[in-house]
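Re: your question from the hallway

Yes, I did run it. Sequences:
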Amino acid sequence: MNKLKLPNYNLEKTLLGGQSHSWDKINDAYYGFTQHNIIKITPKNNDEILWQTYPKKDNFEFLKNYLRLDIDIENIKRIISKDNYVAESIKTNPDLRILGQDFEETLLIFILTQHKNIKAIRKCVRDVAKKFGERIVVDDIEFFLFPEAEVLNNLTETELKTTGIGFRAKYIKDAARILTETDLNQRIYDLNEQEAREALTQIHGVGDKVSDCVLSFALKFDNITPLDVWSKRILTSLYKLDPKMKYEDMRRWIDDYFEGYAAWGGHYLWEYVRVHPQVLQ
DNA sequence: TCTCAGGGGCGAT
DNA sequence: ATCGCCCCTGAG
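Structure:
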């Protein structure tokens, strides 16, 4: 295991919160899966971690990028502390972070999240991994990598549906096809916000919300936060926005409000009301 | 056992 | 611009 100094990083809220569905906490350690590796992180002494990646060991470049170790969290918290709701959330969820997850994995998984609750999402993501992903054993625990687009692309819609993903199967199929047959996977990193969104919404089954999940949770657009039903409730109920506002106008509003850090401000609010839905009353 | 809604998006009006 | 429906799963 490698040791890393990691003060002010809320592993619990960051890894087990709403931006990733790939982590489990088992005996005080966090285990996560991607399309390429299993990551184990064990908190130690409050301000450091022990970590390892499998099967390719010691992949620090991956970890550094995934945890976004270069972020100045204090500065961001200062910028987004605009009101009591955010301040309260920072207290409730101290040092919650935004991750830099893999593009392809994030896209595929958030396609699966449509019209599901968190529990169902976690189950169905694991079902897909278990059925079509590579098995890796760490600490005598069985994990599965999330399958690559190329693997999914070679499956029929019927085969995909054996995992219980229902109408999302044809969406996964179209995404897998585009990821396999085009260079989107490389090109996406050179695109600006508008171009990236256009490229993503070309995929059948990917709309505003899912593409914003990808922009925010994978592509590091710090000014974008996905506006799902909960975020919309927050904006209309707490911030008195008109419920009939178009998605695009709400997105512009929250981007402006958090001065380019909507990914962070929006996520602090989202985690807060998820734990305390009564504040929306 | 049955009903119902759930981290959206599509296709028909 | 609005609205029913999509396939499945877990909660009540």
